[in-house]
Automatic annotation (TrEMBL):
PANTHER family: CARBOHYDRATE DIACID REGULATOR (PTHR33744), DNA-BINDING TRANSCRIPTIONAL ACTIVATOR ADER (PTHR33744:SF1). InterPro entries: CdaR-like_regulators, CdaR_GGDEF, PucR_C-HTH_dom, PucR_C-HTH_sf, PucR_dom. This is PucR family transcriptional regulator ligand-binding domain-containing protein. It comes from Clostridium cibarium. It holds the Pfam family GGDEF_2. Gene3D superfamilies: PucR C-terminal helix-turn-helix domain.
Length: 403
């Protein structure tokens, strides 16, 4: 619910503002306002940026030096600034075509503001708008958390409350979870263990998600949970199509902008009653767990497609799963001759000896011998459907136990 760059057009103090470049970046979120003025080195003013700031300059240290202004714009873009407002007057009289082209190429909104506009009024009104948006966002987060994690019954009409915050959750809705793959592993690889660095990664991750969703005209509620974001989305066909396009772009952008970071996505079933969003969230998380069990990252998985895993994950008593696995595959689970891998590959290839042998780099006769050994140890017939099903379920359970 943060204020976007586009929203500044609504402010009374900025009625005379003029967008000259970077229209593609108007949906960026504004975290704060920053007046960057340095007399000796104008570029020093941007080194403290944290990302998301709208920067205002009068150009007192820049004047007619186009090269400095170009470097300033590059620096703001590198720091993920939300936009730049130039106070046109005695120091910077106009914005050159070269500067406009650079801002357009970086999708950095670039504005000009007449000198007579009082920056103190602009700063005060913009700051108030940002603070108000954060208050509303906190209220929204509380509302959404109550839907997903609260133990009490929802009070009043939840759809009407969502509409109050500007979100349409009428009709069938579902939960989508975007989860950072191996976040702990990523932090260890980058030698990051301080809270500031970890928090910065999460904030950048959230901002990328939010910006791309808004780019695809998806105004949807978002809530944070650990190293993932939870999205409420309508099940209407057009909304689903835009969500999938957004997710694909999010995955691509994160890899490029966050040093190869990947995310997996889980999508729960849709329900008309918002009280069922808690169930949809559970399903979305199970969909991600299913992909993890298969050793996959960077996936998009819908709960309706996870098959037997949905049933197995619903068994909360882990000893039931352990006993099933031991009773079914115990005799070959601790061997050194990879019988479990052979069995799994054989079943995955529909008991085709030739294809399985090629995949495992085994001679056909060697594979036949090992299959016969497996059948003897397990007292089963791998040409019998019931026996194959029993073994297959045990293999699924093994993946769940490992994770």
């Amino acid at each position: 619910m943060s204020i976007s760059v586009r929203d500044i057009f609504k402010l009374d103090s900025l009625k005379k503002i003029n967008l000259v470049a970077g229209e593609a970046g108007l949906e960026k979120s504004i975290e704060w306002i920053y007046v960057a003025e340095c007399f000796e080195n104008p570029l020093d003013g941007i080194k403290w940026l944290q990302g998301g700031e709208i920067i205002i300059i009068t150009g007192v240290g820049i004047k007619d030096n186009v090269e400095i202004l170009l470097n300033l714009i590059k620096g703001i873009s590198e720091k993920n600034g939300a936009g730049l407002i130039i106070n046109i007057g005695p120091y910077i009289k106009n914005v050159s075509e070269e500067v406009i082209k650079l801002a357009d190429s970086l999708e950095l909104p670039l504005f000009t503001l007449p000198w007579e506009v009082k920056l103190v009024e602009v700063s005060r009104e913009l700051s108030n708008a940002i603070v108000l948006s954060r208050i509303e966002e906190n209220s929204l987060t509380h509302f959404l958390s109550n839907i997903l994690f609260g133990d009490r019954e929802l009070e009043g009409n939840a759809i009407e409350k969502a509409a109050y915050f500007g979100y349409n959750l009428s009709g069938e809705c579902f939960i989508c979870v975007i989860d950072i793959d191996g976040f702990e592993r990523f932090l260890k690889l980058k030698n990051l263990d301080d809270e500031v660095s970890i928090s910065k990664i999460k904030i950048t991750f959230r901002k990328i998600v939010q910006d791309i969703l808004e780019k695809h005209a998806l105004k949807v509620p978002i809530i944070d949970k650990d190293d993932s974001v939870i999205i409420f989305n309508r099940a209407e066909k057009n909304c689903m199509s835009r969500l999938l396009k957004s997710i694909n772009e999010i995955q691509d952008v994160l890899k490029k902008r966050m040093d190869g970071l990947s995310v997996s996505v889980g999508i729960g079933n849709s329900y008309k009653d918002l009280k069922m969003m808690k169930q949809s969230l559970s399903e979305a998380e199970l969909a991600i767990n299913c992909a993890k069990c298969k050793g996959l990252d960077g996936t998009i998985t819908e709960y309706k497609d996870i098959g037997i895993y949905g049933l197995l994950f619903s068994i909360k008593n882990i000893s039931i799963l352990e006993n099933y696995f031991i009773n079914t595959l115990g005799p070959i689970s601790n061997g050194d001759d990879n019988l479990l891998q052979i069995l799994e590959t054989y079943l995955n290839e529909n008991c085709n000896i030739t294809i399985t042998a090629e995949k495992l780099f085994l001679h056909r006769n060697t594979l036949k011998y090992k299959i016969k050994k497996i059948e003897e140890l397990l007292n089963c017939d791998l040409h019998n459907f019931d026996d194959c099903m029993k073994v297959k379920i045990a293999l699924y359970i093994n993946k769940i136990l490992k994770k």
